[in-house]
Structure formats: structure tokens, C-alpha cells
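Entry under discussion copied across for reference:
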Amino acid sequence: MNNQSNKKQNRLNGNLFLKTGFMFFLKANILLIMLIFTFLVNKAEWQYDGGTSVIMFVTFAELFIILLSVLVFIKPNVNSEGKVNEREQSKEWIGALIAFVSLSLFSLIFLGANIPYPSTLIFLILMTNFMVSLYSVVFHPVALGIYEANVFQEKTTMLDYIFKYIAIFLSGINYYVQRTLLKLPLLINKFIAVAFVLFLLWQGFGVIAIFDK
């Protein structure tokens, strides 16, 4: 009886792990499609071999997504989303809009690197996640805690919502990667964490390569 119960539980766990890995793969690819669309908006600004740079950007991103999806399947994480009270929807939407406009304006500093808007946002997101991921190599739990404090704790003011979406834009990619690495053995965790830092830096240079003239 116990053997049958264990087999059933293992089968249910296997289905759950597979679903978790697939959902991670699906969401990551939706994000990647959004990035591709952003590049296409600026297609007129690509250099002569910008298409090749975009293909390289997408290829490296897809390879990393596949790696992380496999890790999620092997070591799924329990959602750490905080239990929040009923949100004031108007504040949430306004906070998200203010955060987006503010980051859009800030990203315009990269126009000087020949990166047009809205692709400047992609470069900003990659560079800020690069810096946070570098910090996370040493201070892994602290980086996760800071993100969760900004994003998952109950919000009461407009500023809370603004900071929430700024955190999501500027360090959300790093957070979900670091959460995936959390349950791995220390050496493997650090190896992939360092590889992720280098990956973000490479992708940042990839964005420059698309538009550099």
C-alpha cells in the first residue's frame, strides 16, 4: 500500500516539476519575444549586419533559458510571493506607469551610444541586472531579500508601487535566475551565477553591436 502511495506521489511530483519547468520556459520565451519586438521597432537603426547580432542575441538567450528551465525541472522552487492584502488597483497601475516613464527617460542617456529608444530600455535592464547579478554572486540571500521586500511586501503608498516596478524592471531577471540557483549545490550555484554575470555582459555588448555604426 505504501509503495503504491509513494509511486502515485512520485508521479504527481514529476508532473508538477515538468509543469513548473515548462511554465518557466514559456514565460522566459514570452519575455524574449518582447525583446525581439523592441529591436524590430528600431530596425531602421540597425547597422548593416544588425540582423546577425540580433540572431546571436536570441541564440545565447535561448540557450540560457533552456539551461535554467532544466534546472527548474530538476530543482523546482516553491513560490516565494508574499501574501498581500487587496491592492489598490489604481495606485498599482499609476505606480507602474510612473516607473516605466521614469526609466524610459533615464534610458535616454544611452542614445549617446547610438542605441535608439525603446531599445535603450533593453540595454538599461541588461546592465542593471548585470550589476545586481555581480552583487548576488557574493551576497545571494541579501539580493533576493531586497527584491522581495520591494516587490512582494504589502504596499500602502504610491511610492511603494513605484519602487516595486522599478525593482521588477531593473533586477527582476536576476531575481528569478537567482531563485532558480538557490537549491543547487554551492559550487554549481556559484559557477552558473558567474556564467550568468558574463552572459548579461555579453548580451549588453550584443545590443551595442546591433546599432553601433
Observations:
- Confidence is low (pLDDT under 50) at residues 80-87.
- The chain is about 80% helix and 0% strand.
- The CA atoms of residues 39 and 119 lie 6 Å apart.
